[in-house]
Structures are given as structure tokens and as C-alpha cells.
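Progress narrative, Year 2. Work on Sugar phosphate transporter domain-containing protein from Triticum aestivum advanced from sequence curation to structure prediction during this period.
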Amino acid sequence: MPALGTLSAGGAAAGVAGLLRLRRGPALASPLPAAARAGAVHDGAQLVWGRQLRPALVLPAGLLPLQASKRLTLRPPAASAEPAGEAKSPGLLEKYPAITTGFFFFMWYFLNVIFNILNKKIYNYFPYPYFVSVIHLLVGVVYCLLSWAVGLPKRAPINATLLKLLFPVALCHALGHVTSNVSFATVAVSFAHTIKALEPFFNAAATQFVLGQTVPLSLWLSLAPVVLGVSMASLTELSFSWKGFINAMISNISFTYRSIYSKKAMTDMDSTNVYAYISIIALVVCIPPALIIEGPQLMQYGLNDAIAKVGMTKFVSDLFLVGLFYHLYNQIATNTLERVAPLTHAVGNVLKRVFVIGFSIIIFGNKITTQTGIGTCIAIAGVALYSYIKAKIEEEKRAKAA
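Result:
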């Protein structure tokens, strides 16, 4: 959903602007940037959406008529070209696009750090991750509905076929989101992000054994330090708990399958609308378990305890802000992906994780052992190496296909 200027970025993983485009047939070249065509979800390795959602969704060839000479879109036609002699001189941002790209990177990091810090602070006095996950999605959905109401963007029509295609993506998004929050509520933010650094390992495994696509040996070797680093950090992490560890691992698996399903899903609507519909579906999916698992405790003492500790105004404002930051940082992350090469984005993702881990240690004063610190550094370095090698391989494939 548009925000922060073309912020065009959402839910903070959320907000997605123009990431998806319709691909009518193999003979037609996709107008998407290389990063978006890859359908990868980079977050320390690969978003999502989550940890940032950025799939490339396309309709199966059988669902739409092939039209080699004509391409339908849900966007209004571009304004007619200006008469000769009246062309406007390029503005500052058009003349220096690096300024805009730098702004997107800054806002991506800033919003993500704020979200993680505020999210953890809420869990310190309100340890109900299922309910908080629902609030994250609810605020994002309200944001999307308001944007539709004012026509920014215009709401794309939906039907049963598209819902069927988007549901698996939304289901994996919901599961990954909830389990991430359970992990964040249970262990230190820095440790949760260290575990989630294993996401590229699950992506590679799914690519090799689920999709049947060969993963180069160099990629597998680059994952060795990631596994080693996470193992080292886990053995001596002071906040370690099996609940936090297992939920972070489930989150990794969920986001991996989300990436797989998003490549199979297909839609001709723009990414902002796609993300809005996925958020709505994910919200519906998350409400029942929240009511079943945490509902009784919330009604009995959870809400009253939180209000007694911080007051009604702060409690409500914290929940609203954390949901808004969640939506916006995802949207910004997606827009950043569209503006840069996959290698640049991969490096940016790794640096973002370093920022989050570093700021969380400073803000919350988390004590870490020397082994945990070394293990975290090794894991992040492994993710950086994996991201670099993967991006180079993708660039070589595109060069050969061109």
C-alpha cells in the first residue's frame, strides 16, 4: 500500500508496490526487475515476506488467453506523452536516483529496527504472541482497506480461482508470522534473528528436494558456516529455550514453503493488491488459534494486567504502532527490491539483520557469551556469502538467457 511517498511499501515485509506483473506466456518477456522475477523472499537470506514478503506471482497459462500482441493490466493507462517542446526537465530525484534508493534502504532499516524493538517491548509486559500477531495483520488490513477506499491503489477484483491460488501463500505467511512472534516473545531478539539466519538452508533444501532443481555445490558449501554459527550461538545463548528455537525453525520452514507456493500462484493484479488480499486471508487464518490458545487467559487477566502495567493509552498505541511498522517495513523492503540488483539487495538484507541484532543487544542490554557472539558473526558471514553466490548465479543465468 502506498505510504511514505512512494513508500509504496507495506506492512513494514508488508507493503508491496508493483512487485508482481502478469506473465502471459513464455514467449513474452517479463517487465519486472530481475529481483522481482526471481520470486525470492530475502530476509537475511531470502522476504517475505517476513520476514518480508516478495513473491512473483503469475497465472498458469491455462487460466488466461494468450495474447502475444496485447497485455492487460489493472492499472490505468499512462498519461499521453507531452507535446514536443513541453517536456519537463528532470527533477532532483530523477537526476540522482541514488538518493531515492538510499532513502528506501534507510527507511527499510529504520522501520525494521523500530518494529523489532517495539515488538519485544510489548512482549515484556504482554506475552501473548498469537494476539499480537493478529494485531499486526489487522492494522495492515485496515491500512489496505483505507487505501482502497481512496483509490490508492484501486482495488483489483478477486474471484474464487484467485483465492484458491493465494490461499496456500497466505496460510504459510500466517504460520510463519505467528511462529516468528512466538519465538521473539520467548527468546532474545538477537538470538531469534540468529536462528532465522538458517532460512537460506531451508530454501536450498526445498529447491533441491521439493522442487527438484539442482543447487550448486558452492551454495551448499556457503551454508556450512551458517549452520555452524547458529549451532555455536545456540549452545551458549543465555536466553535459549526449546520453545523459542523450535518456533523459529517452524517459521523458517513456513516462509520457505510460502516462497514455493508464491511461485506457483498466479495473478494479474499488482503486488500491492496481492499483498492486501494475502494479509486479509492470513488475518482470518490467525484469529481462531489466537482465540483458542490465548483467548481465555486474555479475558481472565491478560488484558487487565497489561493495562494495569502501562495504562490503556500506551497499551493501545503500542499495539497500533507495532502493527503499522510491521506493515510499512515489509512494503518498503519490497520497493527496495524493485529498485536494485539482486546482489545489492542480498547484501542489504544481511546488513539489515546485523542492524537489528546490534540494536536489540544495545536497547535491551542482552548479555551474550563470547561463543554466542562468535557464532552469530559466523552465521551472518555465512548468510552474506550465500547471498552473494546465489545472486551471482542468478545474474549469470540471466546473462546466458539474454
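The mean pLDDT is 76. The chain has one domain: 98-399.
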